[in-house]
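User: Let's play a game. I give you a shape written as tokens, and you guess the letters that built it. Ready? Here's round one.
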């Protein structure tokens, strides 16, 4: 059976990746979304096992030691990581899976799984990014500045990614559609089709 493809989607805070990925997954239920583990506290409305697996630092470290974490990073003093088992299960069943993770983790995945496809979602420009972060009205000034600086660092890693997608204001659906087109195109790459197709002729 054909294996699924692992897609990594990264994007700085303010790129709207959470909303875009949610739109993509709800329109294409055949695609799985990896649920990360984190040591950060749940925000209001976040559920264990749905948004994240909220676990203790001790448990996180044990899971790293037992090889159960595909990649992980520290983000604002908390650990975030991808549980390996669910990713493997989806791929073995021929199901595509999306990891919505930051750049450091994305680079680790790329090193470990060469077939992984990386997509960076960006806001159209710095001004829009700043407006979006300030417009949320949920973060303190100190946090906003931290995120803006972090966004600059993340965007500098864009050349390492396979694809870039710009998320214009009010174009969330178009953006999700574009990512879906990338997913479909990846399936048509000859490295993914050749074995099955040639076998039908020879
Ligand atoms: P938040 O706390 O806002 O949910 O997430 C903070 C950052 O961590 C976001 O950039 C998010 O994409 C990233 N993130 C979430 N899960 C993972 C993960 O499993 N691994 C890595 N490397 N980053 C993650």
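Assistant: Ready! My guess for every position:
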């Amino acid at each position: 059976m054909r294996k699924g493809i692992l897609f990594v989607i990264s994007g700085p805070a303010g790129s709207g990746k959470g909303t875009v990925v949610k739109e993509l997954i709800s329109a294409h239920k055949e695609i799985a979304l990896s649920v990360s583990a984190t040591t950060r506290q749940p925000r209001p409305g976040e559920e264990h096992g749905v948004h994240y697996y909220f676990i203790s630092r001790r448990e996180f470290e044990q899971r790293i030691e037992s090889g159960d974490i595909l990649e992980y990073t520290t983000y604002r003093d908390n650990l975030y990581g991808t549980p390996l088992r669910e990713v493997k299960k989806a791929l073995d069943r021929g199901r595509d899976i999306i990891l919505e993770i930051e750049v450091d983790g994305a680079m680790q995945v790329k090193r470990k799984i060469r077939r992984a496809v990386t997509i960076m979602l960006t806001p159209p420009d710095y001004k829009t990014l700043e407006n979006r972060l300030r417009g949320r009205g949920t973060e303190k000034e100190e946090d906003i500045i931290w995120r803006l600086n972090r966004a600059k660092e993340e965007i500098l890693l864009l050349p390492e990614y396979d694809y870039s997608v710009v998320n214009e204001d009010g174009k969330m659906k178009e953006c999700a559609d574009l990512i879906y087109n990338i997913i479909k195109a990846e399936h048509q790459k000859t490295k993914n089709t050749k074995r099955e197709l040639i076998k039908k002729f020879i």
